[in-house]
Write a structure and sequence with these properties.
Largest sheet: none
Number of helices: 2
Number of domains: 1
Order of helices and strands: HH
Keywords: Membrane, Transmembrane, Transmembrane helix
InterPro entries: Csc1-like, CSC1/OSCA1-like_N
Distance between the termini: 11 Å
GO molecular function: calcium-activated cation channel activity
Protein name: CSC1/OSCA1-like N-terminal transmembrane domain-containing protein
Shape: elongated
Transmembrane segments: 17-35, 55-77
Length: 87
């Protein structure tokens, strides 16, 4: 049944995008952790640990956002093409 196939492929899309996010986090977490910010605990591994006022580390976050947007756009386009073949 096409509805079941679309649902399974949608779940696979979510898994693929989550894996992309995990790969990006491998880069971002060390950037956050090595920042000279004043956060403590788990907050050292977040954007809140970056210092305000022109830190070059913010560019890593911007690049990561564009990479994730591009990956999601590519994945959705590929799924759309597959869906059109299924119809």
């Amino acid at each position: 049944e096409p509805d079941a196939v679309v649902m399974i492929r949608f779940l696979e899309l979510g898994l693929k995008f989550s894996l992309c996010g995990m790969l990006v986090s491998v880069v971002l977490l060390p950037v956050y952790a090595s920042s000279p910010g004043s956060a403590t605990g788990a907050n050292r591994l977040s954007l809140s640990n970056l210092q305000l006022g022109g830190s070059d580390r913010f560019w890593c976050v911007v690049v990561a956002a564009y990479v994730l947007f591009g990956a999601f756009s590519y994945l959705v386009l590929a799924e759309w093409r597959n869906f059109l073949l299924l119809r």
